[in-house]
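Pilot study result, target chain (404 residues):
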Amino acid sequence: MSIDKDLIDKLLENYEKPEDVIGENGLLKQLTKALVERAMEAELTNHVGYAKHERGNSSENKRNGNSRKKLQGDFGEVEISVPRDRDGTFEPQIVPKHQRRFDSFDDKIISMYARGMTTREIQGHLEEIYGVGVSPTLISEVTDAVQEEVRTWQSRPLDALYPIVYLDALMVKMRHEGRVSNRAVHVALGINLEGQKEVLGLWTTANEGAKFWLQVLTELKNRGVKDLFIACVDGLKGFPDAIETVYPQAQVQLCLVHLTRASLNYVNWKQRKLVAADLRQIYRAATVEQAAAELESFAEKWDAKYPTISRMWQRNWERVIPMYGYPAEIRRVIYTTNAVESLHMTLRKVIKNRGSFPSEEAALKLLYLALKNVARKWRHVQHWKEALSHFSILWQDRIDAASQ
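Predicted structure:
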């Protein structure tokens, strides 16, 4: 809608300083009040069938004066006049009954909350920027309205196939059964056929364990995930068995970053760089045969001092080698859970201002809002066309089966 320039000139004819437009009693606040009141008058005219100051049919519903209502918004608090009808059936649309804030004001509260600001910080920010005083209860009411959205998101249907899924847990302090403790928030991050990352869900329990992951994977299957090609996980005991119980055709790829870190725990500080460099030769080998030869060379060089490391790699070898079946440009996507760890790092930045959460629901609410912000910045996975081509050659029948 275009606005008449002459009208704008008339509105600004007494303009001298910015406060005249955006100040506490500036033009924008007055204009908002006038437009909202005029819109509600138009709505009531349509409802009762006649305009203000006109005569209506005596048997019809009548106008019945006005009531006062205070609204909070970007321009501070504004008092508006709300028209009423005699039958009490008029329901304003622009500012519904019982609404005390403009929608954009609630959006700002949720946006600040999603970025990790505490209730006290949100209060101070709104007071400083908009001159509006809000209570902790109001902030809780606004953010609690997200809970239903979280429940809907957590139970939404999922795609039938995710070629790659990363599974990992994040530890978060929250109150549970009357005491505060670190609880594991299990995160499933999938890459769909279009090469887009998608968080499939969040689940909390006391500790990360294969038994609970089995429940998570079963839920994913019940929500529509028929198949996945590769599951990237850390070295949690029993994890691969849990995955293969639900998805027997899935390849389980152990995160080599986790395995390397676990290996370096046995090494003194002076030799860590040397050992890490030799381990890098294993997982950067061109073929599985070359990788096996590099592991053998590593054992010959370091077993006398650190025998546990080569044994650890040999014990997990079947979970290390799946990546060698893929071209070099897509191995990096497969052999590390960096994608989900990067997500965890972002989430930790959001929750660091809170000592703990009063409940699991409060923790999931903030993590969900933070995820929405993160997901807006996600791009397609690099080299995804090459990866999908490779998957199609290997498993076109599984892609076809999942799409049926």
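One observation from the pilot: Residues 172 and 182 are 5 Å apart (CA to CA). A full batch analysis is planned for the follow-on phase.
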